[in-house]
Amino acid sequence: MTATVIRSTRGSQAVIAIAAALCLVAATLPLWGEPSWMREFVEIACYLIFAMMWNLLAGYGGMVSVGQQAFFGLGGYVMLALGNFGGINPFVAIPLAALVAALASLPVSKLAFRLQGGYFSIGTWVIAEVFRLSIANVAAVGGGSGTSLTALRGISRSTRENTTYWVALACVVASLALVYLFLRSKQGLALQAIRDSEVAAESQGVGVARMKLAVYVVAAFGCGMAGALYFVSNLRISPDAAFGVNWTAFAIFIVMIGGIGRIEGPVIGAVVFWALNKFFSDYGTWYQLGLGLLAILMTLFFREGLGGFVHRRLGFEMLPTRRILQLAPPAAPATASRLTPEVTA
Q1: Alpha helix ranges (H) inside 139-245
Q2: pLDDT tens digits for 94-147?
Q3: Rounded to whole angstroms, how far apart are CA atoms 59 and 56?
Q4: Are residues 229 and 103 in the same domain?
Q5: 16, 89, 202, 268 - which has most CB atoms within 10 Å?
């Protein structure tokens, strides 16, 4: 029997082509769209990137963190410090802030990786609180009340909003592309093997500790980039807003709605979360209760999320990362009449 490895389908190729076309159209939005549309997109982009990093960490790596807001807030504050005190353009400071967050994750991982399971989750939350309390005691950045981003004062509002939008679009496209390519690589297979069983993965030669550290650093980089982008758009930052556990709570909700362990999960979940927040946030406490109830219902009846539900019912997967082995039956042998000449009288 012959074997063929299937890594994509016509449907997934069509999705990629449509997404590329939409990105080209979206790049022209500042030329014809409303400023409010760009602000809405930047907010969705920040939630999407943060949720994507949490999904990479927990959904594919099996490391359920409740403290990724530590790197989100750190990215925001580093961007502000580079802009206000270092004289660096805040848009240029976004990748620099993400890099600082990634470097900060190295010593943090030494503490976090000493814990396992639920202790790891609580430990990351405690680490994020340490970050928040430390920043709240730094008077240069406003202490507990926060401060404003003054480095963009000389830039017109339209230029600032347009540039923020283009940077957000570039960050989203780059994050999706890099995560997708990573998960389709051998390292992506190793990461998913670690999620399923660290002992089994290590017995097959996978460097568990090295891979977990690499994913943790990459997730910290993405969270730092999302934080820097968010506060460039908001122009003001405070410890409670930057290091609030709500960021991780929202990321978990987004991934649960879209589908944990799926590339398209954070994309679907971010759109659903934005729509709920847009139309129902005015209901206050009832809105929060509704989100909680929706999360419970998804956990009970749609554990695979909306993306997984569509895949199960229709067999369609937007961005497949699995390798499917398709076996083909051997070719039929030649018949006897073809092998022996016909005898005639």
Answers
A1: 157-183, 186-196, 198-203, 208-234, 239-242
A2: 999 999 999 999 999 999 999 888 899 999 999 999 999 999 999 989 888 899
A3: 6
A4: yes
A5: 268
